[in-house]
Amino acid sequence: MEIFGGESGVTQISNCHRFRTGQVFDIVTGTHLTDEKEQKISLEYIMEHKPLVAVAGPSCTAQS
User: Fold this and answer.
1) Inside any domain, residue 22
2) Cα–Cα nearest to 34, from 2, 56, 1, 4
3) Alpha-helical regions (H) of 1-64
4) Domain total for the chain?
């Protein structure tokens, strides 16, 4: 899975190498992680699917 993954670069490369990938959580893919509801949805996804690896980058905000 990717958190703040932008346009899913890691997921796209992983798919080329036939790795199983998870969801991408980013504003580009329709997930606003600054919203409390969206944060809950992403945590529920993690609890349900138990990803082995989470690739994360900094958020694209002034604080990053």
Assistant:
1) yes
2) 4
3) 9-16, 36-49
4) 1
List, in sequence order, every beta strand (DSSP E) within the chain. 2-3, 24-25, 55-56
| Number of Cβ atoms within 10 Å of the Cβ of 15 | 12
pLDDT tens sequence for the chain (64 residues): 888 877 778 878 887 888 888 888 888 888 888 899 999 999 999 999 999 888 887 777 666 6
Distance (Å, rounded) from C-alpha 57 to C-alpha 62?
14
Whole domain around residue 45: which residue ranges?
2-56
**Is 58 in contact with 4 (CB distance < 8 Å)?**
yes
38 falls within a domain: yes
